[in-house]
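Re: beginner question about structure tokens

> Can someone show what the tokenized structure looks like for a real chain? I only ever see the sequence side.

Sure, here's an example I had lying around. Input first:
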Amino acid sequence: MQNKDFFRNFAKIIHLNFFMIRTFHAKTPATSWTLLVVLAFVAGYAAWSKEAVMLALALVVVTIIIDRIIHTEYSIDNGTLTIRKGRFSKPHSINIGEIQRIDQASGMRIGGKPVGTFLILILSENRELTVCPKDETEFIKQIHKQRHRNENE
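And the corresponding structure tokens:
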């Protein structure tokens, strides 16, 4: 009898520690790519015209933009949504219980079709947060699953 309880508790611990964390990588908006290309040209011009200060500044900004493009992710873990926007910024955590509604929106349209879509998280106290996960439908499912799990506990 004690062995069964031990294995049930062990299974709960494993389930809570290993299967609860879900990470979503971010889509990169076209504006970030455009800014990156423009700043790369500015850095090239600065190198060509031997402007050291402008070159250094452009390369620092390009490095920060590349870091944000590569390392932006959204993690869902034990009722908390953690947003990491690169290594140079601190993570932002939100309790999933604060999320009242999730709206899907689109930015610029070309020919009536959206160029990119994103999610608007409507939080308590009239706050809004915009996220751009690659798999929006799975992200919404995981948020609802975590909210349902927290309500049942």
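Each token stands for a local structural state, so reading them left to right follows the chain. The chain is about 50% helix and 30% strand.
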